[in-house]
Every structure is written in C-alpha cells, then in structure tokens.
Amino acid sequence: MTKMSGMATRLLGGVAIVATALWMAPHPVQAQNSAGVSGRVQPGLWIDPDGCMHWVADGGVEGYMEGRVNPHNGMPVCLDVNTCAVANSDVLFHTDSARLTHAGRAHLEQFFRSAGAFAYAIYGHTDSRASDEYNMRLSQRRAASVANVARGVGARVAREIGYGERRPAAPNNSAANMQKNRRVEIVCYR
C-alpha cells in the first residue's frame, strides 16, 4: 500500500485502486473521495493535497501513477501550499444560488489573473440552514462556478470540492458566524 497524503492506493489483483485522485489536464470527470465528498478531477498530472506532484500513466480505471521526483536528488517535487483567498459567498453569489454576481465575477477574474500560482484548489462552504444534502450540492456548484472563472482566465484548477456545512469556520449559532461559514476558499499551489 502506498501512502499519499492521508489517502491510500491499494493494489488489488495487480490493479491500483486510488481512494482520492485529483488530476490536472483538459477533461474533468466526476469523482468522490473517501469521505463521500464529490468533486471534479482531471486526468494528467495529479497534485496531492500536500502539493506533491504525481505523473498519471493513463486516465483509465486503474489510476496508475508515479511520484514526480527531482532527477538530481531523487526527492519528490512538491509545491508550496497556502490558502491565498477566502471569499464571502454573500459577495460572490446571488442569494441561495451558484450564479456569480457581476462584481463577484470581476473580482475573481482579477484575482486569478494576478495571483500567479501554478494551480488552485477551490473549496465551497455553506452555513447549516438547509439540509446537508442541499448544502453539499450548493457548495459544489459554487466551487464549480469559481473554478470555471479560473479556467476562463487560463488558470489551472487542481480540485474543486463542495463541503457544504461540514467544515464550519465558526459555530452556526449567530447570523455573523453563519456569514463566516458561507465562503469559498482558494488554495494556491506555488
């Protein structure tokens, strides 16, 4: 078993089964991680949550990949990872919608043009006012909207995941705290 940043690859009958695989390349597909959180993945170069790169040998079901290493010292090639923006969903989106406001779209386009990261991870979050299922769908659609803006200006998106209300920034016990939880986090891989 190969350990990959908290996720495991298991070999079953000579076939590698990847618990969570998030790749970079032209054609995204739907996938789900081991926690049941769905997101879009792209075949090609995989960047794990720690920022380490892995070459994907094929985009098939096997999920075969090999860690990218520096040929001079044999060390893994890893990018610096940091949260480079947290945007309030109330400013970016229309109420109870994944449709971006004009100002929200303009702000995101400017951000992605100037941030200068190799790739981005987009995480959508909601407060707890609706059902978990509804919040998961809304947060995923919002993450996808932000990721589409990034791709529209030529930025690479390593992953886009909706967490709904499952990762609150504050307790959902007041209007101010709920507003903190309605957010989109953008992580930069540099």
Describe the structure.
- This protein is an alpha+beta fold.
- It folds into 2 domains: 66 residues, no CATH class; 109 residues, OmpA-like domain (60s Ribosomal Protein L30, Chain: A), CATH 3.30.1330.
- Helix content is 24%, strand content 32%.
- The chain has 4 helices and 13 strands.
- The strands form 3 sheets. The protein has a 6-stranded mixed sheet with strand order 5-6-12-11-13-10. It has a 4-stranded antiparallel sheet with strand order 4-7-8-9, with no helix packed on it.
- A hairpin with a 5-residue loop joins β5 and β6.
| Helix-strand sequence | EEEEEEEEEEHHEHEHE
Number of domain modules: 2
Question: In which range does the helix fraction lie?
Answer: 10-25%
Number of distinct beta strands: 13
DSSP strand (E) fraction?
A: 25-35%
What is the averaged pLDDT score? 80
Terminal-residue CA separation? 28 Å
Structural class, judged by helices and strands?
Answer: alpha+beta
Number of helices: 4
Fourth-level CATH superfamily of the largest domain:
OmpA-like domain
Q: What is the gyration radius calculated from CA atoms?
A: 17 Å
Widest beta sheet: strand line-up? 5-6-12-11-13-10
